[in-house]
UniProtKB/TrEMBL annotation:
The lineage of its organism: Bacteria, Pseudomonadati, Pseudomonadota, Alphaproteobacteria, Hyphomicrobiales. It holds the Pfam family ABC2_membrane_3. Its main location: membrane. This is Transport permease protein. It is a multi-pass membrane protein. GO terms for molecular function: ABC-type transporter activity. One of its GO terms (cellular component) is ATP-binding cassette (ABC) transporter complex. It comes from Rhodomicrobium udaipurense.
Amino acid sequence: MPPRLLALIVKELLAAFRDPKARIAFIIPPLMQVFLYAYAATLEVKHASIAVLNEDWGETSRQLVTRLERSSAFAPILWLKSDREIVPVIDSQRVVAVVRIGQDFSRKVAAREPATVQVILDGRKSNTAQILNGYIGSIVTQFAIDQAMGGTDPPDISTVVERSWYNPNRDYATTMVPSLVATLTMTTVLMIMVMSVARERELGTFEQLLVSPLQPHEILIGKAVPGLIVGFVLATAIMLIVTQFFRIPMLGSPLVLYAGLFVFLLAIIGVGLFISSLVSTQQQAMLGAMVYMMPAMMLSGFTSPVQNMPDWLQPVALMNPLTHFLVIVRGVFLRDMPMALVAERIWPMLFIAVFTLTAAGWLFRRKIS
């Protein structure tokens, strides 16, 4: 490596972490967010408030209510005395759902007649309400199966046996926490990259860099290498937290994951340098990074599957490097994803990296000329 290029790399690392506040901002928040996402930003529903209106009070209905009470998904049940109380408790958001058991529920179950349980949901909390509806439906279905099995007549019922592959306990953290290797690394590296050129322009040192003996491609490499170093160190730290603290094993090869990480970082560095080359101040660079990061997170499949998006939006999601690296991270952690499948996700990221780095290099050459 030429000494002048090595000097530029060292200079960029010192510039990024010279300020103690910058060191704290680039290191502490990503590590804190690992725990925040794992424990606070969860889609699991626990201790949700529900109400029960039992108009039957037969033995069978009481057994069903007992099963609801034993579930960890629900807080202590609010008991209603009449249907007139349903609207007030929903309107005041005291409960998310009301389970209503009709007057003839026990009789119909004993007579092997269809018996229904009404669930009234607060649509203002659509995600929680949908999950609660699934919990309640699962409890009622299992209760119906047990009642049919306990009867004297042979049960006319088909039982669905669930088997969850790759995440047997369907633990939310097992899926969410490994994904943070991708999202938090992207956020930190992108912020470092977008600030690199903008900071030099504000300090007046960018012109000095342009008239130095460094060639445009050397400037580009000198700006990119610190991002690679920070990205690898941060991703490794997060992986250690995932495997050692949360005890989520990595079933695949770390080398495969690092291969995907290298190409992913190149793509993010290219995006960051491209944004940084377009702006003049650090404030503009921050805004540019935010404008990119929000759609990138939403279109990546981090919170909802890409397949659930409209058909016209799915090709846009495939132009996002985070979309592909999330598949690699989850595949390597939750199953031994073979290199052939990883390669299918690497080449789109490689194309994005080549395009963005080429565009950033063209802008550098244009500035020099």
